Amino acid sequence: MRGRCGQAGVEYAGVTALVAIALCSAAALTTGGLGDSVERSIARGVCFVAGQRCPALAAAAMPPDLEACPLERRDRLGDLSLDIGVARLAGRLGLAVERASDGSVRVSFADEGRVGLGAAVGAHVESGRIAGRAEASVDGGVAVTAGRVWVLRDRAAAERFVARFGESQRFSGRLKRDLGLLCPVCAAIAGSPDPPPQPDEHWYAGGLQIGSSLAVSAGPASAGLESLLRGAVGRRVARNGTTWFLRFDDQILGSLDLLAHGVDSQIEKHSLVSLDLDRAGRPVRLKVTVQRRVSTRRVNRLPRSLRAILGSSAGGAGRVVESETSLDLRDPRSRRTATALLAGVKGADPRSSSDALRGVRSQLRERGIGTVRIWSLDRSGSRLGVGAGLGARLGIDAQSRAESQRLLAVASRLPGLDWLTRADCLAT
User: Fold this and answer.
1) CA dist., res. 174 & res. 144, Å (int)
2) What whole-number distance in Å separates Cα of residue 375 and Cα of residue 293?
3) Dihedral angle sign, alpha carbons of residues 348, 352, 355, 357
4) What whole-number distance in Å separates Cα of residue 322 and Cα of residue 361?
């Protein structure tokens, strides 16, 4: 019992320190320290995206003890929301598949529930045959997410896994599953999806989000603007230990359609700070990841007769720039710095915590392993729903989205060395 309490104390202190690191690291993006490293990494990614001539990297393979590179990512998301008065109830089902350079594939299922308050003025209708909107809305609330991860040995095994269990991550499959719990005979008739096996990892997160939207359409013309800001803290448990993480997301989406032609632009930024603990509750790694995503769509709309069958949809392509810095806390010097930070936070000593935080930032800059990844991005989506409001609102909406990313370029930097291309990943 004492051991578990001691571990819980360490983990609690780790979470508190994680919050402090995240906030101060965000400030450091413009004041030096860790920010200088992140900004340099992102600047290099931007020159790739812009097609400009980038500073040459040493063409050498990285040491074999580095983590395997992610090569491909595929995400499928489904959202369903119900508005009654000033209340909004929403749910999301997600499925993600990520293939790594060592051949392994991670399959993730994520379930999210959101409860919040909001208001709207105007009305909207979206379907394959009719699409019209003149509405402004704002809402905010609490979101709780639970996820499971399975690590498969290769792509073929992952495809078989998704084919057998992935239907449960669609609302239609979830309805069949829930129906099967109430009526086993009905489940046999409807074809209820099989429950997946025990996961290799599971995680949960909770936080706050706020969003707003403005959209107008009249005849052949339409325009819209959406924004979202959210923050969450979470915990992931695997066989080799626990990870506490803090995540911030912000997104802006603008669209314009005129005379059957469309263009939209989507800009996103995702910031993640994570602290890995071993099975005994000792900190082993600190990681800071900043991801920027830019995508656009500029294609002719489908003919109205096809839209009536397929529904309203939009596809796009873009780039993702991902910068990551990790610090091995098993190194004696880094471990002492992290321990001092944990002690300062646990003892509620602002001065010692501030000094220790500067030490952690210095360690990240001097001894951290940096990685920059450039991805191609393809996305598509569709919406279906109806709603109206004058302050209070009433409506129901469904949305589906699919995204795929493919690794285009990757470079890493070890302490004391220049940036090196990850030939081990690019040759895979």
Assistant:
1) 18
2) 9
3) negative
4) 19
Q: What is the dihedral of CA 44, 49, 54, 56, to 10 degrees?
A: 80
| Cα 85 to Cα 166, 218, 357, 399, distances in angstroms | 34, 26, 46, 21
Mention every residue, 6+ apart, whose C-beta is less than 8 A from residue 212. 136, 137, 138, 139, 226, 227
> Between the CA of residue 81 and those of 26, 87, 125, 207, what are the distances in Å?
32, 10, 14, 18
- Tokens standing for residue 368: 């951290």
Structure tokens at 294: 């830019």
Reduced to 3 states, what is the DSSP secondary structure of residue 102?
Answer: coil
- Return d(Cα 131, Cα 102) in angstroms, integer: 46
**How does 355-364 read in b/e, with b if 16+ C-beta sit within 10 Å?**
ebbebbbebb
User: Burial level of 403, CB count in 10 A (0-12/13-18/19+)?
Assistant: buried
Asked if 312 contacts 222 with a C-beta cutoff of 8 angstroms, the reply is: no
Residues 6+ apart with CB under 8 A from 120: 83, 135, 136, 137, 138, 387, 388, 389, 391, 393
Q: Which two tokens stand for residue 100?
A: 């790594």
C-alpha neighbours within 13 Å on the C-beta side of residue 287? 17
Q: Nearest-CA neighbor of 243 among 345, 149, 363, 162?
A: 149
Residue type, 423: A
CA dihedral of 310, 314, 315, 318, whole degrees rounded to 10: -170
- Nearest alpha carbon to residue 315 among 221, 404, 417: 404
Predicted structure pTM score: 0.77
Give the Cα separation of 323 and 292 in Å (integer). 9
* CB atoms inside a 10 Å sphere around CB 60: 12
Q: Say which residue the tokens 């995508």 belong to.
A: 295
What is the per-residue DSSP string for 59-83? Answer: --PPPTTSPPPEEEEEEEEEEEEEE
Q: Which of 170, 166, 113 is nearest to 143 (CA)?
A: 113
- Within 8 A by CB and 6+ apart from 28, the residues are 34, 35, 361
What's the pLDDT tens digit per position in 20-73? 554 444 444 333 344 444 444 444 444 444 444 444 444 344 454 567 889 999
Q: Per this entry, what is the length of the chain?
A: 428
Q: Cβ–Cβ contacts within 10 Å for residue 304, how many?
A: 10
pLDDT digits (tens, 9 = 90+) for 89-105: 999 999 999 999 889 99
